[in-house]
Write a structure and sequence with these properties.
Radius of gyration: 19 Å
Shape: globular
CATH superfamily of the largest domain: NAD(P)-binding Rossmann-like Domain
CATH topology of the largest domain: Rossmann fold
Number of strands: 13
Number of domains: 2
Helix content: 25-40%
Order of helices and strands: EHEEEHHEHEEHEEEHEEHEHH
Number of helices: 9
Largest sheet: 7 strands, parallel
Strand order of the largest sheet: 3-2-1-4-5-6-11
Bound molecules: nicotinamide-adenine-dinucleotide
CATH class of the largest domain: Alpha Beta
Structural class: alpha/beta
Length: 314
């Protein structure tokens, strides 16, 4: 299914969603953003992007324009993992029940395709250096459990209702517009935010834990292509990472190069439950998309630091 209709972006005023909305516009596809602004912000969006401030699960809030939509990009969620541990019932509503509502909206409005934001957290602590989609899953938090349930529900919706579903398991997404004031924002955003203020950064453990950091602009391209291009996107989960990983000490080295000075680092004891190694196997992404994310960590961090230094962020 290709289609030329609009694309409904739930959570489109958030970090990843705002990049998705602007890329849709650049490609002359109309985004319709549905966001309750729980963690999103209208200032993330260009002024001419239609924004409906409401709960994406309240189907009556959906505009008539949704009837012409060719896809839903479902990013709305409660992504702060620690919050979901404290408030698991809220997580269930935001991270799972909302996905069921989206399926109902797709059925009601005849929207054929849903692109779903899942997470590498569904793998849990595999003990392996690399995660493949066929690996056993072991979601360890309400966030990961609910996201995993959402994946299974979409598989059901594909089989039962004939919806086209694309499930993307994002690894560590970073880049401009990730909220630096949130204690749960990604480690690169937290590091950048402290470093540009000349404050020390904190590393838990030995700093040799590895992550697959993927630039938000690359993620937006995958999402938009999955929503708008007829292709070989399989219904099963697809990792969205770079296929390479770096440890936090290497990250400090890149910051040091970019800033022209060595960051001050405080070491704290390792936190229980932290995943040791995370790296996406990207064979399936490559087969579906024809490419893998290409932005280097250096270029991505450069863009992040530039954004943080713009006056609006100060
Ligand atoms: N950032 C990452 O590294 C990462 C990694 C894996 C998965 N994800 C997933 O990607 C998606 C986007 O994450 P993000 O980092 O951009 O987070 P974000 O908090 O910036 O965006 C989430 C958006 O959803 C909105 N929202 C929440 N509940 C809503 C509701 N009921 N109705 C309408 N809007 C609602 C929020 O206001 C916010 O704008 C999430 O589903 C998240 O779980 C993100």
């Amino acid at each position: 299914m290709n289609g030329s209709g609009s694309v409904v972006v739930t959570g489109g005023a958030g970090f990843i969603g705002s990049h998705v909305a602007s890329l849709l516009q650049q490609r002359d596809r109309q985004p319709i953003v549905l966001d309750n602004l729980q963690s999103g912000n209208p200032s993330n969006l260009q002024r001419d992007v239609p924004l409906i401030v409401d709960d994406a699960g309240r189907i009556d809030a959906w505009p008539t324009a949704a009837r012409n939509a060719s896809a839903i990009v479902h990013l709305a969620a409660m992504p702060a993992v620690q919050d979901t541990v404290e408030r698991p019932l809220e997580s269930h509503t935001a991270n799972f029940v909302l996905t069921q509502h989206l399926v109902e909206a797709a059925r009601r409005y005849g929207i054929p395709r849903i692109v779903y934001a899942s997470t590498a957290a569904v793998y849990g602590n595999t003990g392996q250096a690399e995660q493949h989609e066929d690996d056993a899953t072991d979601p360890l938090t309400p966030y990961a459990i609910d996201k995993h349930a959402g994946e299974r529900y979409l598989r059901f919706a594909a089989e039962q209702y004939g919806l086209e579903t694309v499930t993307l398991r994002f690894f560590n997404v970073y880049g401009p517009r990730q909220n630096p004031s949130s204690p749960y924002s990604g480690v690169l955003t937290q590091f950048s935010s402290r470093l540009i203020r000349n404050q020390p950064i904190v590393i838990y453990g030995d700093g040799q834990q590895t992550r697959d950091f993927v630039y938000v602009g690359d993620v937006a391209q995958v999402v938009v292509d999955a929503a708008t291009q007829a292709s070989r996107w399989p219904a099963g989960p697809i990792n969205v990472g770079t296929g390479t990983s770096v440890d936090l000490l290497q990250v400090v080295g890149v910051f040091s190069d970019l800033l022209g000075r060595a960051p001050q680092v405080q070491h704290e004891p390792a936190r229980t439950g932290d995943v040791r190694d995370s790296k996406a196997n990207v064979d399936r992404l490559h087969a579906a998309w024809g490419n893998t994310p290409q932005t280097s960590l250096r270029d991505g961090l450069h863009a992040l630091i530039d954004w943080m230094q713009t006056p609006a962020q100060g």
